[in-house]
Amino acid sequence: MKTKSPRTFHHIDTWVFDLDNTLYPHHVNLWQQVDARIGEFISAYLKISAEEARVIQKDYYKRFGTSMRGMMTLHGVHADDYLAYVHQIDHSPLEPNPAMGAAIAKLPGRKLILTNGSTDHAGAVLDRLGIGDHFEAVFDIIAADLEPKPALQTYQKFLRVHGVNPEKSAMFEDLARNLVVPHELGMTTVLVVPDGAKEVVREDWELEGRDADYVDHVTDDLTGFLQRLA
To answer: Are 194 and 66 in contact (CB under 8 A)?
Structure first.
C-alpha cells in the first residue's frame, strides 16, 4: 500500500502518454487483434502449434517487455518483419474522442507519446481518435533501439532525445510495471485501469500494482481525469 503522498501536477510542463489501452478504453480490446497476430507470427516462425505459441508469447511478454524482444533475442527475428505483420489490424473499433482531444489541448505544455508499438500503428490509432494534432512527437520501439519499456535505457533515451525534464513531467500508462522507472526518475505517474463495468481481456499480472508507491494516481476514466486537471 502507498506510504507517501502522491505527486501533484501543478509543476508539470510535459505530458507523456502510452498508446495502447491508455489513450483508448481497455474494453475496445483493439489489442486483442495485435495479440492474435503475435501468436500467429510466433506459430509460423517457430513452426509450432497455436497453443505452444501462446505459451511462448506470454512468457516472452512478461520476461522481455514485449514478445518481439524475446523473439529477437532468442530466435533472431527481424523487428521490421514482426512489426509489419502484427500491426496489420482493423482500427475501425476506435471512435473519435473529441472530448479527450479538447482535454489534452488544454493541458499546459508539451504532449508526447511513448509506446512499445510502431509509429505506423500509433499514427493509425491517433487518426481514428482524432487527437494526433495535439502531440508533438511519437517515441516508438524503433526510436528506443528495439528495447521496450520498462527498460531504464528506453526512458533515458526518450528524455534525452526530446529534452524532457522528468521532474516536470507526468506519465500515463496502463501497466503499473512501466511506471516504476518513470517514478524513480522523478515523474508524476498515472495508472489507467479498465472500466470495471466493461469486459476486458487482461492477464492477472497486468492488473497488479495500482496500490504501489510508484503509482501516484489511478483512473478508469482518462478523459474525465484530464478534464479535471485542465
So the answer is: no
